Amino acid sequence: MLDQLSAQRTQRNLQLDVLRAAAILLVLVCHSRYLREPTWDLILWRPAWSGVDLFFVISGFLISGLLFSEYRRNRQVGFARFFVRRAFKIYPAFYAAVILTALPALIFAHGDYSRIWPPLLNDLFFLQSYREGSWGHFWSLSVEEHFYLLLPIALWLMIRFGKNTSNPFQRLPLAFLVVASGVLMARLWTAEFVRPFQWQTHLYPTHLRVDSLLFGVLLAYYFHFHRESFSKFISDNRTIITFVGCLLLSPLLLIGQYDRWMYTWGFTVIFLGYGCLMMAFLHLDVASGSRSINALLGAVAYIGTFSYSIYLWHIPWLKFVRALPLESVGVRLLWFYGGSIIVGIIAGEVIELPALRLREAFFPRITPAFTAPLEEAVVPVSQP
C-alpha cells in the first residue's frame, strides 16, 4: 500500500499545489487583522480575503475534472464511489476539528448546552453558509459541500438526457451562463432589499457564491473535452490571459470586501480573474525553471498539499495566539503564520493522511494516464 501511495505522489500537479498554497496564505494574511491593524502591508491585506474565491475556482476545476475524466474513460460516472471518496477526504479532518475544539466548551458548560448544540448541529449538516457554525470560517466548507452534492446531480441529468450524444455536457457553457447570471441577480437583489448588511446574509450563502465553483467546472469542461484547442489557445495567449487576470483582480487593491460593488459584481470579476491566472499558470512549463526556482516552488507546493487542514485549524490557533501574553506585533504574527502552518501539517499527518490511506485501500482511484497530472491525488505520504 505504501508503494502505491508513493507512486501516486508523483501524480500531484505542482502548479495546483502552489495555487492552493497561495490561497491559504491569502486567508492567513486576511485573518491576521485580528492581531493588529494593517499598516505598511495594507496592499497585501486588503485583497487577502479573496483567497477563499481562489479555493472555490480550484475546487470546481478539480472535482469536476475527476468526474469528466471518469466519463471519458467509462462513458459513465460512479457517483456513489465519488461521494464515498469525497467523504473520506472531507469528513474525518472536519469532524475531528469540530469535536476537538468543542470539547473544552462541553466540559466547562456545567450542564448548560443551549449555546453549544445549535452551532454543532449546523456543523454536522453543513449549514454554516446559512446558519452560524462553531467557527466563522466554516461557511466556505458548507458552500463546497453543497457544491459536491449538486454538481454530480447536474452532471447525471446531463448524461441521462444526452446519452445518445458523444458529449452529453455540451450545454454546460450555457448552463454556466444561466446559473452565473442568476447568482449575480440574487446578489444584486440581496444587496438592494436585505438590510442591514451582514456576513451571514450577503457574503456566505451558497446561492450567492456557487458561481465561482461553477466557473472552475466550465474551465475543466473545456480542458477535458476540448483539450487540444483549449490548451493551444491558453498557451498561445498566456501573456494576454495573465494580464487580463491581473486586471480583473486589480479592484481588490482598492475596494474592500464589504463594499456593495464588491459583494455583487465584484465576486463575478474576482472569480473570472482567478480563473484566468489559474489556467495561465497551469500551462506554464515550470520544469524548465532553474533549480532554485523549482526548490522554492516545491516548498510552497508542500504547504499547498496541507491547505485543507491548515484552513480548518488556523482560526482555533488564532484564538490561542490572541490569548498569549505577546506584546510584539511581529512575534504575534510569527506565532500565527508559522503556528497555523505547523498545526495544519501535523493535523494533516495525524488525521487527514490516515483517512486518505484508508480510502485508497478500500476505494482506490483508477486514473487514466492522459489526465493524471491534473487530477486530485493523494496527499504525499510522510517519509519514515
Write the layout of secondary structure elements.
Layout lengths: L1 H8 L4 H18 L10 H4 L5 H24 L4 H29 L9 H8 L14 H23 L10 H22 L5 H4 L3 H20 L1 H10 L1 H12 L12 H21 L8 H15 L1 H17 L5 H34 L22
Helix pairs in contact: 2-4, 2-14, 2-15, 4-7, 4-10, 4-13, 5-15, 5-16, 7-10, 8-10, 8-13, 10-11, 10-13, 12-13, 15-16
**In one word, what is the shape?**
globular
User: How large is the radius of gyration?
Assistant: 21 Å
Beta percentage is under 5%
Poorly predicted ranges: 1-10, 368-384
Helix segment count? Answer: 16
Number of strands: 0
Largest pleated sheet: none
Mean pLDDT: 88
Helical proportion, percent range? over 70%
How many structural domains? 1
Reading the helices and strands in chain order gives HHHHHHHHHHHHHHHH
Distance between the termini: 14 Å
Attribute tags:
16 helices, single chain, mainly alpha, 384 residues
Characterise the protein shown here.
The chain has 384 residues and is mainly α. It has one domain. Helix content is 70%, strand content 0%. It has 16 helices and no strands. The chain has helices spanning 2-9, 14-31, 42-45, 51-74, 79-107, 117-124, 139-161, 172-193, 199-202, 206-225, 227-236, 238-249, 262-282, 291-305, 307-323, 329-362. Helix 8 packs antiparallel against helix 10 and helix 8 packs antiparallel against helix 13 (262-282). The protein is globular and about 65 Å long. The two termini are 14 Å apart. The model is unreliable at 1-10 and 368-384 (pLDDT under 50).
